[in-house]
Automatic annotation (TrEMBL):
GO cellular component terms, semicolon-separated: cytoplasm
Protein name, per record: Cytochrome P450
Superkingdom of the source species: Eukaryota
Family indicated by similarity: Belongs to the cytochrome P450 family.
A GO term for molecular function: iron ion binding
Top-level taxonomy: Eukaryota, Metazoa, Ecdysozoa, Arthropoda, Hexapoda
Alphabetical GO biological process terms: organic acid metabolic process; xenobiotic metabolic process
Residues involved in heme binding: 438
UniProtKB keywords: Heme, Iron, Metal-binding, Monooxygenase, Oxidoreductase
Entry keyword Cell inner membrane: no
Keyword Transcription appears in the UniProt entry: no
Needed cofactors: heme
Length: 495
């Protein structure tokens, strides 16, 4: 009995003093506690500061631009400096993705999909997915046609709401943005009155708000899922995953029944055909489970980040009517008597500057998707060990006082030169940078431009409540606009 107690005590002491300690030359940060590391301090700061990125900002101000912490099981390094981030993000050693309980919860207990996979498997899956998206219009002129169809229906919806009181247009934006990507993936689109889609989008929204890019408590302390609030969060995550799995499997089954190898219409068709061909060669790297998680990655990535950017743009336009008016005047001058097209971006300098300033000021994704060091990495005078989770605090870069001078001020003119031409600033990185740059950047940029210019050309927007007049986003894996309403009035066409 006493021998067993002594053995356990020895193991605990060994853990405290020899294993659960900071590695040599690890980046500075708060002192670790045994087992939990800095988790309690992180949660306390989050409760006080309201936003996860502000916790990392606080620690950066205390310890410097490279901060190292331990949150439960996870060792994490956060970079808050542009030059250091740009140095690290291009390294092969940095392009891994972390593993963990929550990442596997959505992937049948495995490492699947295109967002949280790496190595040869992840690279092959990303290449196949991107190739099929391109074959179905991604980055081509037909992509603008798809966006244009959704923009046209969205504009018609807004026109039908003119003079009918205050409007919350977030859900309608979300559906039409989602339709562009879903047309390429599944060859179909949704109505904004589709109840099943409404439920799915609401659940995805909830899921994002329960997470943060560092992995979250469930990932850092998986045992938390058996207790109190942790159990509730875990059950909500499971519910969202179950709903998405059911919806995606039903969609895949429909495609399988109608699959014609001589007539491939979308990404799902192409993937199902690839499964058949690979299986006949005893290659099982392409599976239905992998397809489901890949679609989940695309569905979640394609639904909220672009929608939130457009919604934040609407919010900023209502808060700054002078900006709205100047952007409308520019569109009227360049696109008199016709719709705006993507080629007009080269002439709509102020509109581009407004979009860029919203991306900087509102920070839809204040932190990059987590990366994992595949090997030991030297950064500045510090050593980041293998299998460390690394994040870049884009908020800190976009709100750097030393560079932007007045970052808390919404000022599109910062992206214009002395001649009024748009200037592209390398420190504006809303889609990240390096080898794991956002896969959907091309579609995201095009969608934001087309939707926003359609709104500006055809409607005047007025803030209708105090929420719309104050920037107070909802925290989560990405930032969401607090629900707000606007007054929509039609603009007279300029001939």
């Amino acid at each position: 009995m006493w021998l067993e107690i002594a053995a356990v005590a020895t193991i605990i002491v060994w853990y405290f003093y020899f294993w659960d300690i900071k590695p040599r030359h690890f980046p500075p940060g708060p002192k670790w506690l045994p087992f939990v590391g800095n988790l309690f301090e992180f949660l306390q700061l989050h409760k006080k500061l309201k936003y996860v990125h502000l916790v990392w900002q606080h620690w950066a101000e205390t310890y410097g631009p490279i901060v190292g912490v331990k949150l439960g099981l996870d060792t994490i390094v956060v970079i808050s400096d542009y030059k250091l981030a740009s140095e690290l993000l291009v390294l092969n050693e940095y392009e891994g993705r972390p593993d963990g309980f929550l990442f596997r919860l959505r992937a049948f207990g495995k490492r699947l999909g295109v967002v949280f996979t790496d190595g040869p498997f992840g690279l092959e899956q990303r290449k196949f997915c991107l190739k099929q998206l391109k074959l179905n219009g991604f980055g081509k002129s037909s992509m603008e046609d798809l966006i244009g169809q959704e923009v046209s229906e969205f504009s018609a919806y807004l026109a039908s709401k003119c003079g009918k009181g205050l409007q919350d247009i977030y859900h309608t934006i979300n559906v039409h943005v989602m339709n562009v990507l879903w047309s390429m993936i599944a060859g179909k689109r949704f109505s904004h009155t589709d109840e099943k889609l409404t439920l799915l989008l609401e659940q995805i929204h909830t899921s994002f708000c329960l997470q943060d890019m560092s992995g979250g408590v469930l990932n850092q302390v998986p045992i938390y899922r058996f207790f109190g609030a942790g159990k509730q969060i875990f059950n909500k995550h499971k519910h969202v995953v179950s709903l998405l799995n059911s919806f995606l499997k039903e969609t895949i089954d429909e495609h399988r029944i109608n699959l014609d190898p001589e007539n491939i219409n979308d990404v799902i068709d192409a993937y199902l055909l690839e499964i058949q061909q690979r299986n006949s060669e005893n290659d099982f790297s392409f599976t239905e489970d992998q397809l489901i998680v890949t679609l989940m990655d695309l569905f979640m990535a394609g639904s909220d980040s672009t929608t939130n950017t457009i919604s934040f743009l609407v919010e900023m336009l209502t808060q700054h009517p002078d900006v709205q008016q100047r952007a409308q005047n520019e569109i009227d001058s360049v696109c008199r008597g016709r719709d705006v097209c993507l080629a007009d971006r080269k002439q709509l300098d102020y509109v581009e500057a407004v979009i860029m300033e919203v991306q900087r000021f509102c920070n839809v994704a204040p932190l990059t998707i987590p990366h994992r060091t595949k090997e030991k990495v030297k950064l500045d005078k510090y050593i980041i060990p293998k299998d460390t989770t690394v994040l870049v605090n884009l908020y800190s870069i976009h709100m750097d006082n030393k560079y932007w001078q007045d970052p808390e001020t919404f000022r599109p003119e910062r992206f214009l030169d002395s001649e009024g031409r748009v200037k592209f600033v390398d420190r504006l990185i809303p889609f990240g940078m390096g080898r794991r740059r956002c896969l959907g950047e091309t579609l995201g940029r095009a969608s934001v431009f087309k939707f926003v210019t359609a709104i500006l050309k055809n409607f005047n927007l007025t803030a209708a409540d105090t929420i719309a007049k104050k920037f107070s986003p909802i925290d989560g894996a990405i930032l969401f606009p607090s629900p707000f309403t606007v007054q929509i009035t039609p603009r007279m066409p300029v001939s």
